[in-house]
Structures are given as structure tokens and as C-alpha cells.
Amino acid sequence: MATVEISDKELKDALKKFFGFEQFRGLQEQVIKSILSGRNTMAIMPTGGGKSLTYQLPALLQPGLAIVVSPLIALMKNQVDAMRGISEEPGIAHVLNSLLNKTETRQVKEDILSGKTKLLYMAPESLNKPENIEFLKQVPISFMAVDEAHCISEWGHDFRPEYRNLRNIINKINPEMPVMALTATATPKTQDDILKNLEIEDANVFKDSFNRPNLFYEVVPKTKDIDKEIVKFIKQRPGQSGIIYALSRKTVEDLAQFLRLNDIKAVPYHAGLNAKTRSKHQDMFLQEEADVVVATIAFGMGIDKPDVRYVIHYDIPKSLESYYQETGRAGRDGEYAHCLAFYSYKDIEKLEKFLFSEKSSIEREIGLALLNEVVAYAETSISRRQFLLDYFGEEFDPEKDPGGDMDDNVRNPKPKIEARDEALKVLRLLTSVKGDFKINDVINILHGVETTRVKSHKKLLGDMWGSGKDKEKEFWHALLRHMLIHKLLKKQIENFGVLKVTDKGREFMANPTSFMITENHKFNESVSRPAVMKQSHGADETLLKMLKDLRRDIARKKNIPTYVIFQDASLEDMAIKYPTSVEEMTRIYGVGEGKARKYGAPFAELIKQYVEENDIVRPEDIVIKSSPTRSAMKVFIIQSTDRKIPLEDIMRAKGLTLEELIKEMEQLVYMGTKLNIDYIIDEMFDEEQQEELFDYFMEAERDKISDALEEFGDEYDEEELRLYRIKFISDMAN
Questions:
Q1: Do 163 and 123 touch, CB atoms closer than 8 A?
Q2: What is the pLDDT of residues 333-367, one digit of tens each?
Q3: I need a labelling partner for 106 at 20 to 30 A (CA). Which of 56, 247, 627, 636 fits?
Q4: Are 34 and 16 within 8 A, CB to CB?
């Protein structure tokens, strides 16, 4: 292996000459010296910790070509541009991939063979091509740097199978070349996987602290008002740069549009946009022509913008590695930055469903393990920073170490309650009766609810049946999730959602110990807005009661459920904004023109009288605009259902999932538009089932699907119930 002898002074002089820095940061100097000495090297450094310099500087100081393996074209392009910016030789760094034309490819190879090029960036797919392997065999190689090395590991958050073939490629090009692995997010398990796969177990391993003390971590409940909450959060930080991460392209597009409509300079970024648009939006963000980028997870890797003041997770990520890396794009200048995540357990269930529908058994097991860590982080009552750093194998003391009070749990400690006896009750239930029980089944048994799935076990369960009625269902949900997190229970991989008692659970039964859970972490739809983001004007409780009384009176006269007229959320919004005309009613959450015309007048009149009698100054400034440009989608859905187009064809035409299409249809009918979906319902349900569902929704006090699922057990799935509810609301209200 080639080595380069260089003194400390010469190394610092080179740092100043090429990059303009006086001092190295963290472990940079030690990592650079290791690779210059010809040793295999692994560097685990936090996002923003200066990883790229640890291979750029040694590449410039050594004879030969350094190959940098990277997963993203955008990341490679930015780094090549940066290297060309510090050198008079434009060929000092190149990307070699299939996007280059023949002339460009020829130029790259000529620069490499002439010795001009010191850094060659390649994706593993390009590196694996036989013609590229044959070409690189002719070239003196100084070392290979594997960036984002967690992609090698199946336990990493962004596993890429192509990465696992890198050792074979290294052996073909030059088995003696030193290898450098770099990552910002490697747990001990992932680290071992990387070292073994690259066959560099002898590597010098350098692990910097993962603590970013300037970042404030916060997790809040995800409610139906999330878009409005985000608008308010951003408007409290005018002119600041921020990134919002969402899992689907549609959410990215819709949210970016909603923010722009509310005078926030926002741009979308996702893989469905063409390269030119992505590049343009990225540049707008870097050049501060846009304050906010709404993006899927691809955005931000290798983007060196130091002053990102907040990172918002609209959807909870699939792993803590993803979360850590994405939040790490905030506050790289060392100044305060806010990391806000919206959490709903329903999002976790959707991710679980995806794992079971798309992945192999091994991938499912890994994916579920990673998801359980995310749930544990969201629902923990201890220091979030302590939880994160422990996950990455680093000790942290919130009372002594930097950043100890920089999270919501430490700033606002949450009360905990003892749940040892209740945990034992669950374990005894699951071990005393043979049955494939899921979370909802256990809760139904404890509450004595006779659903189809559990009623046959009633006699066998004896006094356990209904023995948990003294606790709310939310308590049992929280307890069961804590038991999963703490490995007393597990969800069976091959039988989606079925709970089984683990060895640790059996040990707990034999020797019960204290089992504390957080009392008020109830992350569900009914949770009120988080205190840190509450509106300055809460709902007027006196007016709200009057509105509910009016709604009840109208419902009785028309012989329809109250929720058919206006949802509770709409009444709450009225009690905040005080709309006094039918036109102003259309600005209320969940109220469209049709519903405003049909039901709005008496409510507007009541509010007008109330405002005048109480000398109320109406808060015009908090009206958040809704997007009129969604009308194209609405018109398409209305026309398609009128023409009796199958749901699958509507979804395909607009690139929607079933979940997304149902959500669009729900918004339409709740806002007062009639949808003709009888043809869908007739195909889905027989006459008797339709009568049963009609009777249920007619008599229900509220329209929550969770209530309907509890009522019918596994007789109907969630999508079926939501589609029938769309028909019911459309027929009864519109």
C-alpha cells in the first residue's frame, strides 16, 4: 500500500491552501492521517461534521486517482463543483456515469489517464460496468472512499443492494488499494456489517460524537390541521430557511402549493420532477430565493447550507438513522435550530402494511425492528437526545452534557404512571388462551367488546373478559406499544400484526418489576394541538356550545346525524374565526361552497348576533387560504365517478394510491359536493351489508372510522368503511 509522509505543519498548510481553513474539525485530522498512511479506515461522523474533506484533502496530496463511491447524482455534482472551485485545473474532479455523452466520457478518461484528475465520483452501478472496471485497472489508484457506507448494510436506513458488491469490484480493480468507509448514521450493528462486507475488519475506526447540542428536538401529535400548524410555525420564523420532509411525492406537491398560497416562498423537490427542475429548486433554496423546500428524503444529501433553521418531518421517517441524518441538515453553523416531527401511530401502521405487502421476510423483520425504534423515540418520556445517542452507541447525561435541555421532554417533563399490573394482565391473557390476537383484539377483550374475531374466546377467557374497562382504550394502546418497544411482546412477522409473548415477557411474568409508562403521550386523532404551537386565539367555548346546540336542533328536524351537517372541527374553526356570512363560511375548515349554501346561513346569523352582542373583534389575520387550484383534481374525480370509471383507473390516471384517492373523495363530500359512487358500493357490498352500514352511520354519534372498525371487527376493512361513509355523507348531506 502506498503511503505519504507528511508533517503536521505541512498538513495544516495544505488545509489552508486548498480549503482556506486554519484548523481541522473533530476527528478530521486523525482520519486523514490514517488514509495517508495506507490504512483501511472507517469514519463515523455526524451530518455536517466535515466528512467530505477527509477524502478530498488526501486525494489532493497523494499520487494517483481517488475513487469516491456515492449514491446520489446531486451529491456528486455539488462536490465536483466545489473541488473545481478550489483549483485552476477544471479536470481535477469528475463524475463518470451513463448521463454523459460519448464526448464527455472521452474527456473524463483522458483527464484521468493524463493525471489531471484526483477525484472520480461514481455510483456503484456505474462502477460495476465491465468497461469501467477494465479502464480503471489501467490507472494508479490512491484509495477508494465509500461515502454513505450505511447503504451497504441491510440494517442501515437506506439499504442499496449494489453497495454489497463493492468488495468484488475492488478485488477486480486493485485488491491492494486502501478502502475508506464514511457514514453519518451507523449503529454498532450497521458498523459491523459495513466492515465485514468490505472485508476491512482491520480498519482504523474513528467515531466522532453524534451530539448536536444546538438542535432542539420536538415530537408533536399529527392532527388533521397539520398544514395549518406548519404555516403558523413558519410564519413565526419569517425569512428563515427550512426543510420539510414528507414520504410521498403527492404530499410534497400539495404542501408546497399550500405554503405558496399562504405567502411562503416554498418549492417542491422529489424524484418525479425532471433533473432541470430539481436543480433549479435546489439553487433557489441555496440562493435564498426560496425559504422552504418541501421534499422527499432524497433532498439535502451533500447540500452544504449552514443556516437551515428548522427541519420539519410531516411524516415520521422509517428509521432513526433517516431521522438523525435529515435533522442533521439543520444548524450546521452551530446556531440554534428546531427539529419538529409530527407523529401519528396510524402512519406507523401504514409503513408496517407496506413492509408486509412489498418486502421479503428478512427485510420485513429488519424494517419492523427499525420502525419499533422510531415508535420508541416518538413515545419516549426521557431525553430525546439521550435516546438518540444511546441508539448510536454513545453515552449522554442530560444534566451534564451540552444540549441537555434541548428537547421537549426535558423542557416539559411528562408524568409517568406505574403499569406493572396491567402489563401482567396482558401477558397472562396472551399466554392463557390460544388465539391469533392483534392489538385491537386484546383491547376489545379487555373492554368486553364482542367482535367477530374475539367473541368465540369469551368463555375460555373467564374473568379476564372485560377486566380492563377501568382504563381508557388509549391507555391500553399506549401500554401495548410500550410492551412491544421493551420487547415483552413482538408482532409475528409471518402473520401480520399477531402478538406473541417473548422470552423477556415470560421472565417479566415470573419476576415482575416496575413498568412505568408515560401517561399523556396519546398520539391519536383526538389529541389537541401541541401547546408550543397553539393559536393565539383558542376556540370560544361559549360560542362553540351554541353552535353545537344549533347543529343538534337542525339534525333533529332533518332526522340526520349531527356530523352530517358540520364536523366538530368545522364548528371549532367557526368559534375561532367568527364567520358572519355564507361567503366567509367557505373559509372554514371542511366547509365548501355547497355545504356553506346548504347549512351555513343559520350558523353565520347566530355568529353575527353573538359578535355584535359581545363586541368581539374578529381575527381576520388568522384566516389561512385553501388552494383553489385543487379544482382540477376535484372536477376529474366528479366526472370520473359520474361516468362510473373503476377506482383503479381513476387512481392510475392521476398517479394516486387508494388511500390518497379516498382522502380526496372525503374532502369533496365533507365540503358539500355530491359524489355518485353507487356503482362502487354496489360492487363492494350486497344489499344486506349496505342496510347494515346505513343503519350504523345513521345511528352513530360521530363518524369516526375507528368506532366503525371496533363495531364490525374484521367484517369490513378500513377502506371499505371509508368508501361507504363517502356515499352516506354524499346522500344525506349533499
A1: no
A2: 888 999 999 998 788 887 887 776 666 666 777 78
A3: 56
A4: no
pLDDT at 7 over 50: yes
Q: Using an 8 Å Cβ cutoff, are 55 and 8 in contact?
A: no
Mean pLDDT of all residues in 60-84 = 83
Q: Which amino acid is at 464?
A: M
Whether 170 contacts 40, CB under 8 Å: no
How far apart are the C-alpha atoms of 677 and 270, rounded to whole Å? 33
Q: Are 41 and 206 in contact (CB under 8 A)?
A: yes
CA angle at 584 for the pair 579 and 589, rounded to the nearest 5° = 80
CA distances from 629 to 199, 260, 261, 617, 626 (A): 55, 12, 10, 31, 9
pTM beyond 0.90, yes or no: no
Cell numbers representing residue 348 in the block: 406507523
| 576 and 535 Cβ atoms separated by less than 8 Å | yes
- Pick the more confident residue, 184 or 465: 465
Report which of 669, 685, 686 is spatially closest to residue 726, judged by C-alpha positions: 669
For residue 64, pLDDT beyond 90: yes
- Residue 626 clears pLDDT 60, i.e. is over it: no
Q: Is the pLDDT of residue 57 over 80?
A: yes
CA 110 to chain centre: 44
Burial of 471 (C-beta count, 10 Å sphere; 0-12/13-18/19+): middle
Which of 230-244, 257-271, 579-593, 639-653 shows the lowest mean pLDDT across its residues? 579-593
Question: 63-93: b or e for each residue (b if 16 or more CB lie within 10 Å)?
Answer: ebbbbbbbbbbbbbbbbbeebeeeeeeebbb
Q: Which CATH superfamily is domain 628-733 in?
A: ATP-dependent DNA helicase RecQ (1.10.10.1390)
Other Cβ atoms closer than 10 A to 510:
7
**What are 519-573's pLDDT values in tens digits?**
545 554 433 333 333 333 457 888 988 999 999 899 888 888 888 888 887 888 8
- What is the pairing mode between strands 179-183 and 215-221? unpaired
What does the block give as the cell for 212?
448536536
- Whole-number average pLDDT of the chain: 84
Give 92-114 pLDDT, tens digit per residue.
Answer: 999 998 888 899 999 999 999 99
Instruction: With beta carbons less than 8 A apart as the criterion, state whether 442 and 426 touch.
Output: yes
Q: How is the chain split into domains, by residue range?
A: 8-207, 215-411, 416-518, 535-622, 628-733
Query: Domain 215-411: which CATH class?
Result: alpha beta
Under DSSP, the state recorded for 626 is P
Question: Residue 217 gets which letter from DSSP?
Answer: E
94: helix, coil or strand? strand
Characterize the bridge pairing of strands 416-418 and 516-518: antiparallel
Among 3.30.70.141, 3.40.190.150, 3.40.50.300, 3.40.1190.10, name the CATH number for the domain at 8-207. Answer: 3.40.50.300
- Classify the C-alpha dihedral 454-458-461-466 as positive or negative: positive
The CATH-assigned architecture of domain 416-518 is Orthogonal Bundle (1.10)
Whether 8-207 and 215-411 share one fold: the answer is yes
Strand pairing category for 119-122 and 93-95 = parallel
Closest CA to 251 of 294, 220, 310: 294
C-alpha cell at 358: 412489498
Amino acid at 195: L
- What is the separation of C-alpha 207 from the centre of its chain, rounded to a whole number of angstroms? 27
* Residue type present at position 665: M
Collapsing DSSP to helix, strand or coil, 637 comes out as helix
Helix, strand, or coil (residue 219): strand
Q: What are phi and psi of 372, to 5 degrees?
A: -60, -35
448-456: average pLDDT: 78
According to the model, what pLDDT value does residue 462 have?
Answer: 79
pLDDT of residue 121: 93
Residue 493 to residue 485: CA distance in whole angstroms: 15
Q: Which residue in 430, 437, 453 sits closest to 711, CA to CA?
A: 453
